[in-house]
Write a sequence for this structure.
């Protein structure tokens, strides 16, 4: 326990004393605890399952606190659904090659010839359909939110304007009204 000098009588007293025991002078009020002022929640953006306020961003079942968001950006990627079809087509062509070699080695059979034709036709169809899927795939845009633990895709959509409007709302909430992302 440390001792301090009373400003009135000059005697040493405990630093914890509220008043001087010798002269009764008050020793100074203890430092007040500053409690954070609760911020009123103001909606900034709401559409479908998305709600952006000045304090949080809610996406369906995920909630981000604005104070924890360090940045937000537009993410985009092009899905590649056709690779599975291309792989199936390639596998069918591979199997048909094995069947064809088996027919040459062990003799021709009508059933094997029909199955070979079906495998080749199916393989070519799947391969071409997979290529078409890749060509027609649309870009998917996402809201990428950065927090202390890393980045996460909070929401994804084919509608770029929808995603940008959400990014602008989050930027507005994080920066207290400053719009920072242009279309």
């Amino acid at each position: 326990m440390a001792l301090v000098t009373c400003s009135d009588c000059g005697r040493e007293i405990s630093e914890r004393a509220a008043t001087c025991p010798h002269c009764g002078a008050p020793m100074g009020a203890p430092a007040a605890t500053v409690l954070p002022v609760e911020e009123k929640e103001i909606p900034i953006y709401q559409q479908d399952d998305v709600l952006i306020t000045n304090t949080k961003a809610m996406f369906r079942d995920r909630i981000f606190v604005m104070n924890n968001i360090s940045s937000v950006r537009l993410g985009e990627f092009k899905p590649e659904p056709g690779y599975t079809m291309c792989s199936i087509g390639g596998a069918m062509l591979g199997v048909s090659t094995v069947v064809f070699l088996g027919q040459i080695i062990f003799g021709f059979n009508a059933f094997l010839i029909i199955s070979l034709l079906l495998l080749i036709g199916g393989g070519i169809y799947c391969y071409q359909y997979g290529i078409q899927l890749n060509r027609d795939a649309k870009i998917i845009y996402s809201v990428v939110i950065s927090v202390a633990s890393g980045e996460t895709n909070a929401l994804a959509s084919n509608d770029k304007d929808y995603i940008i409007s959400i990014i602008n709302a989050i930027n507005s909430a994080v920066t207290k009204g400053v719009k920072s992302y242009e279309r």
